[in-house]
Amino acid sequence: MMMSKRLAWLMLGWLCLGLALLGALLPLLPTTVFLIAAAACFGTAAPHWEARLLAHPRFGPTLRNWREQGAISGRAKFFAGFGIALGLALFFARVQPGWLLGSAVALPMLGCAVYLLSRPRPRPVPGVHAEAAKPGRWGLLASLLVHGLLGAALLQQILAVATPAAAPVQPVLLQARLLPAAAPPQPVELRRAPEPSRARPQNEAPPRALKTLDAEVMPAPLPRPEAELLSVAAPSAELPLIAAAPATPAHSQASLAAAPPAPALPPAAQAGGLHSESWQARVLARLENFRSYPPGARARREQGVAHVQLRVDRQGRVLSARLQRSSGHGELDQAALATVRRAQPLPPIPADLPQELELLVPVEFFIS
């Protein structure tokens, strides 16, 4: 039991000594406090280590003054207060903690500083050169420095809370559709209206009823013009068909006007706007050039739509690509992601758009 207790005190002494040495490099840790604690622990567990600390040329005088008089020199107070204040200022400036964490760190350090500054100065020993500093001067300077730096750190924290940081710019999500390749063009037959029949003169007598087929020879019908064929690239567009005009009855007395010309057909719609000048159209056109149907999936007749979400920067680099919705077939999903990898870099984002954009692209795989 005594051995384990002694070992615990020894380990605690080494820990305090390590923190004291670390405090000599990092201003947040009070070196003087940890040295006093290490000497106390070594005095209980290992007196020879305590003697070595008391005989140390740098740390020995401070420890002896504390051990014999419970006093701390002005120089030790100054460096301890300066280190604590500087450490707190750096902590609040770099970490910017909340009130809970800031209080948990600042209050113990402030307590150590107040305790050190409140200790008396060592009494001069006869035959030993007294300190040249005036009584209380180092302590006053250290106290002012501690309070000034701590007040500046707290003021910076208050200003940081009062002025919230601007929200980070989120990339704009655009939805674009990558359509499957267009089917082969199909010819569409457009019919012309037949030429109108000649009108009979008004003074001509109405024709007699035909008794037999041999009574009067019927005029031969005019030859019908050949139909014109027009190929349209987009099979999905509904094209208007011009129907033939109804035949005029033979017994009509009114003259017939010529049929109006057929209206011009609208231009065929491009598939998904691939030839548009917009940035999205250029991105889709590039993805379309690198898309390929996996042979294995085609052989198994696997079909589906894989939704891929891309994040693109100003230079067209793909920062991330993830599968948002699966097509139901793993090989098709991997082919959609491979399309993005092969196509990068994508066209650069225009200057009038944000720095980063997100595109949601449904990549379709269908067997026609």
From TrEMBL:
Residues 278-368 form the TonB C-terminal domain. One of its GO terms (biological process) is transmembrane transport. It is a single-pass membrane protein. Its main location: membrane. It comes from the Bacteria. GO terms for cellular component: plasma membrane. The chain crosses the membrane at residues 33-55, 76-93, 99-117, 138-159. It is found in: Membrane. Residues 189-198 have a biased composition (Basic and acidic residues). InterPro entries: DUF454, TonB/TolA_C, TonB_C. Residues 188-210, 253-273 are annotated as: Disordered. The keyword Transport does not apply. Keywords: Membrane, Transmembrane, Transmembrane helix. PANTHER family: INNER MEMBRANE PROTEIN YBAN (PTHR35813:SF1). This is TonB family protein. It comes from Roseateles oligotrophus.
